[in-house]
Design a protein that fits this description.
Shape: elongated
Low-confidence stretches: none
Number of domains: 1
Distance between the termini: 14 Å
Oligomer: single chain
Mean pLDDT: 93
Order of helices and strands: HHHHHH
Number of helices: 6
Number of strands: 0
Largest sheet: none
Helix content: over 70%
Length: 150
């Protein structure tokens, strides 16, 4: 089960990153290009947020139930904090991703509360941009797409 959930989590991270980059780029283009707000941009942000929700769900399942890395880290948390790899997966990765999830949701929700397009794009650009930045900082870049399989 661990290999399956980890592989799904790794594949979906790329989908989340691509959707996040697209949502942030289009929001910045709309903001600085003074474009009219479009339903298609709202949907792109929603797809990014939904993908992040799914990603967090798989991450929590790994963290709580399936990951031997987390089990090892939680068995001796003091030693885990001293180890760069264990600290990353037991603390840092999760914190980065939870904050990125909050920013993704804010980027999706806050534009709805404004009537003018430039304000909608501005809020979406800021929060989607922050979400993508945290995704980039918190991703385990050395992981293969299908770890544990094969």
């Amino acid at each position: 089960m661990y290999a399956i959930f980890l592989s799904l989590h790794n594949i979906i991270r790329w989908v989340a990153l691509i959707l996040g980059l697209l949502a942030a780029i289009f929001a910045f283009i709309g903001w600085f290009g003074k474009r009219e707000w479009s339903e298609r941009y709202r949907k792109l942000g929603s797809f990014f947020t939904i993908t992040m929700d799914i990603q967090i769900l798989f991450g929590l399942l790994l963290y709580i139930a399936f990951s031997p890395i987390t089990r090892l880290a939680l068995s001796n948390f003091g030693s885990a904090i001293a180890s760069k790899n264990l600290r990353f997966f037991s603390v840092e990765h999760g914190v980065y991703m939870l904050i990125a999830l909050v920013f993704a949701h804010l980027g999706s929700i806050l534009p709805r509360k404004i009537s003018e397009s430039s304000g909608k794009y501005k809020r979406a650009a800021i929060f989607f941009g922050l979400a993508v930045l945290l995704l980039l900082l918190g991703m385990p870049w050395g992981r293969p797409i299908f770890p544990g399989l094969g």
